[in-house]
Amino acid sequence: IFHEDEKERIKDKSLFTESNVKEERSLWQTVFYFAILVGILVFANWGKDESIRIWQAIYSFKWFMTGILLIILSWMLIKWFNKEERIQWVSSSWGFAEQILPLLLGGVLVAGFLLGRPGSEALIPKIWIENLVGGN
Q1: What is the pLDDT of residues 5-45, one digit of tens each?
Q2: Per the database entry, which stretches of residues form a coiled coil (predicted)?
Q3: Which of 39, 65, 73, 94 has the lowest CB atom count within 10 Å?
Q4: Structure confidence by residue, pLDDT tens digits, 49-94
C-alpha cells in the first residue's frame, strides 16, 4: 500500500545522513546509565533461592541495592539530563501509558469474563482451557 511513498522517502538522502547531531553525553555516560537501569531491573526482580548461599545473601540485600541504584539514577538524571530532556521523557512515557493502559485493562477485563478466576467457572469452561494449554 505504501510502496510508492517509501520509494520517495528513500530518495531523500537527508533522512539518512547525520547532520548537526550533537552528542549530549559521552559514551561512558550512556553505558553507565544503561548499566544502572539494568542493575535496577535485576536487583528489584531477584528471586529467593535457598539452595546457594550467595543468592540468599544477594536476596537479603536486594532492596538496599535497588535503593542505592535508584539514588545513583536520580543523581544522573538531574546532572546529566537537562530540563527539556526530562520533560520530553515524561511526556513520551505518559503518551505510551495512555496508549497501553486501556488495552491492558480491557484485556484483563475480557480475560476475567471469558476465563473466570481461580476456582470458579466463566463463559469458557475450564476443561476447554486445560485441553488447550494444560492443567497447571
Answers
A1: 777 777 766 666 665 556 788 999 999 999 999 999 999 99
A2: none
A3: 94
A4: 888 889 999 999 999 999 999 999 999 999 999 999 999 999 999 9
The three cell numbers locating residue 92: 513520551
CA distance 136 to 31: 41
Residue 40 has a CB neighbour count (10 Å cut-off) of 18
Task: Give the integer Cα–Cα distance in Å for 52 and 63.
Answer: 19
Dist. CA 25–CA 18, nearest whole Å: 17
CA 2 to chain centre: 30
Roughly what angle, to the nearest 10 degrees, separates helices 53-60 and 62-80? Answer: 50
Q: Measured in whole angstroms, how far is the alpha carbon of residue 30 from the centre of its chain?
A: 18
Q: 18 — phi, psi (to 5°)?
A: -95, 100
Q: Which helix (H) or strand (E) holds 122?
A: none
- Between CA 38 and CA 44 the distance in angstroms is 10
